[in-house]
Write a structure and sequence with these properties.
It is a single chain. The chain is mainly alpha-helical and 147 residues long. Among the domains are: 16-40, no CATH class; 74-138, DNA Binding (I), subunit A (Orthogonal Bundle). The protein has three helices and two strands; from the N terminus they run ββααα. It has a two-stranded antiparallel sheet. GO terms for molecular function: DNA binding. Residues 72-135 form the HMG box domain. Residues 72-135 bind DNA.
Length: 147
């Protein structure tokens, strides 16, 4: 019995513009549009305005929520503690605060970083204790019964 040749499926090639790019210029409005989306393009009177989200910053830091419940006790690096304190005292934009805070942290001596390192160690220790208590409370199944 002879082996039948495999039937090969035809694959549709990706459509391209005349110059080979994946974008084509609309003749009516002159916009460059992706060829894959060209059939959905609307121009002229049918065109709808796209609504974009515009972030309005109040500049106040009261809106920022603190970590909820168990996340507060999760271990964090000393830099994160410094960042939280810095943002509370900084009066400007949050993005600027992050940039400035990083540069300040890099230039701080180890003596200045010690309070934040200590806070991180305390939170890490509390987290490890909680994990150990959780491990002790878990009911251990005798795995020999399942073999």
């Amino acid at each position: 019995m002879a082996i039948r040749p495999r039937i090969r499926k035809r694959v549709q090639a990706v459509r391209r513009a005349a110059d080979g790019s994946a974008f084509e210029k609309c003749e009516e409005c002159g916009l460059m549009i992706a060829i894959a989306l060209f059939d959905m393009h609307e121009c002229g009177e049918n065109r709808r305005e796209v609504k974009r989200f515009k972030c309005i910053s109040s500049g106040k830091f009261e809106n920022i929520s603190k970590p909820v419940g168990s996340f507060e006790d999760e271990p964090r690096s000393p830099f994160v503690f410094f960042l939280e304190d810095f943002k509370e005292n900084y009066g400007g934009n949050l993005v600027d605060a992050s940039r400035i805070c990083f540069n300040v942290w890099k230039n701080m001596s180890e003596e200045e970083q010690k309070p934040f390192i200590a806070r991180a160690a305390v939170v890490d220790l509390a987290h490890n204790r909680k994990l150990n208590q959780e491990n002790k409370s878990i009911f251990k199944v005798d795995h020999y019964l399942w073999i």
